[in-house]
Structure formats: C-alpha cells, structure tokens
Specification:
Order of helices and strands: HHEHEEEHEEEHEEHHEHEE
Radius of gyration: 22 Å
Strand content: 15-25%
Structural class: alpha/beta
Low-confidence stretches: 1-36
Oligomer: single chain
Strand order of the largest sheet: 4-5-2-8-1-9-10-11-12
CATH topology: Rossmann fold
Largest sheet: 9 strands, mixed
Mean pLDDT: 88
Distance between the termini: 58 Å
Length: 295
C-alpha cells in the first residue's frame, strides 16, 4: 500500500515537473524572440522546410548563400545552391559538388541522382572567362521545387551588385523564381553616409532617383530605408506570397550595430506589409547574427 502511494505521488510529481518545464521552455523561447537572441542563420531568418530562398540586394549575398547552405547541410538538410544571374565559382569547401551543364534537363537529372550522395549541390549552366558561373533559368528552379524526389532547401542568388554594399535594381533585376517562398534582401551598413558615386554604389543614378539623394551627396538612414521599402528598390519583383526579411550586414564595423538599428527603425516606420523581421548580421564574423528585430 505504501509502495503504491509512493508510486502515485512520484508520477504526479513527474507530471508537475513536465508541465513546469514546458511552461518555462515556452517562456524562454518567447523571451528570446522578443529580445532578438538567436543562435543561427536558420533561426534568425525563420527558415522552414523545403524553402526556396532568393537573395537580393548588395553587400554579402554570396557569402550568405554558402554560409547558410553549410549550416543547413550540417543540420541534416539537403541543399541546392545556384544563381539566376552570375556568381563566383565556389571553393571546394563551400559546396559538396559543383555541376555545370548547358542542358537544364541534365542538371535536373544530376540533382535527382546525386543529392543524397553530396547533401549540398551547386548548379550552373556555364563557366565564364571572368571566373564566374552563369546561372540557371528561373523555370529550372521552379521545376526543381516541384519535382518529386527532390526534398531540399533551394537557395538562389537572384541579383548582382559587383561587390558594392548598396545598389538599386536595373530594369531586368532581380531575377526571382515564382516558386520563391522567402526573399532575403541584403544591404551593407557600411553604405550609410557613403557618397553616392559610381565607385561606391551599384547603379547610383537609380539609387538617386529612388531615394531623392543627389549624386555626390551622402546616403542617410532614411535613404537606405527607402531603398529597402520602395517598390522599385531592392525588394522589386517580390512575389506577393513570399515572406520577406531585410538583412543589414557588416554590423561588425565600427558603430555598425548603432548604424544598423538606425536604418532598421526607419524601415519599420515605413510599415512594409511583407517584411516580417530585420536581421542585423556580420557574415564574416562569429556569430553571423548579432540581433533580430521584429515589427
């Protein structure tokens, strides 16, 4: 009888402990979200299963693509990386396999047949003399997304910026596949207070037209926010069904976090209906994410 009573009390105690642990866990997760603490790019960006992620903007797209791909691959997910424009050829340690072929049907067959073997595959259509890779069509990305037997996160560099921290898209940019579920727009905070010129900014005349900043004048936090939220800015062509994240990179420069928060506040003031969060990042440092700000 005493043994039965002891067992009953022990079971009740264990149940109470589980309930308490569950409440504490939910509180901690909620608190972390409010305070912006994150442990990875995956968490910071809110990545879900079978995402199609298009990276646009300037100031770290290629670095983000391969760093995120590595993180996802190490967590057990299959990853396909590519571009719909051009990218530098990845180093051997940045991808499990690089497959280049002008025939997109052969590319699809390769991904289907080798994704389990390599976990992370980078695909392109051509090696260019510049040392860059010519990307695939948006239709191929859509086909891979809807193909049976390909259970992967697909990451696309869908924009070009010639290595500059700030840009405005040209007429035919960005090149975003319709299957895109998440758009990440990158902006280098080192562009804040930078003079608007050909040497510093990609497509400076377009940036001037969108932001109202005259050529030769310095970019303000207000101008950077307009560049993010304007319909002709770096989110141009975003599918209406896509989630949107603004990624303010290079916060590890002097006063970088302060600069990023100033830009982020101006972005939030614009009340863009699709932006679900703003990530303050430092892709060439550890950890790669400093903070996440939610509307």
């Amino acid at each position: 009888m005493l043994s039965l009573l002891y067992d009953t009390r022990r079971i009740q105690t264990e149940r109470h402990q589980k309930i308490i642990y569950s409440i504490v866990e939910r509180f901690v997760k909620k608190t972390q979200k409010k305070e912006g603490r994150v442990g990875s790019l995956t968490e910071a960006l809110g990545i879900e299963a079978r995402e199609v992620i298009s990276l646009v903007g300037a100031g770290g797209k290629t670095t983000l693509m391969f760093r995120l791909a590595r993180e996802l691959s190490l967590s057990g997910k299959k990853v396909v990386t590519t571009t719909t424009t051009k990218i530098l050829e990845p180093a051997s340690g940045e991808t499990g396999s690089l497959f280049v072929d002008s025939d997109e049907e052969r590319i699809k067959d390769f991904v289907r047949g080798h994704l389990d073997q390599y976990d992370h595959i980078t695909i392109a259509r051509e090696r260019l003399e510049s040392g860059k890779l010519k990307g695939v069509s948006p239709n191929l990305v859509d086909d891979l997304c809807h193909s049976q037997g390909i259970d992967a996160v697909i990451i696309i560099e869908a924009d070009g910026a010639a290595g500059r921290p700030v840009k405005a898209p040209r007429e035919n940019e960005p090149v975003i596949p319709t299957s895109t579920t998440l758009i990440v727009a990158i902006l280098g905070v080192d562009g804040l207070e930078m003079k608007l010129s050909e040497e510093k900014v990609f497509q400076p005349e377009r940036v001037s037209k969108i932001t109202g900043v005259p050529m030769g004048e310095r970019l303000t936090d207000e101008a950077m926010a307009i560049l993010v939220t304007h319909h002709e800015g770096i989110f141009k062509g975003t599918p209406s069904s896509s989630r949107v994240v603004a990624f303010l990179n290079k916060v590890d420069i002097p006063n970088g976090v302060t600069k990023a928060k100033s830009i982020a506040l101006k972005i939030l003031d614009k009340k863009h209906r699709q932006i679900e969060r703003i990530v303050l990042g430092q892709l060439k440092s550890e950890p790669p994410v400093a903070e996440v700000i939610f509307p």
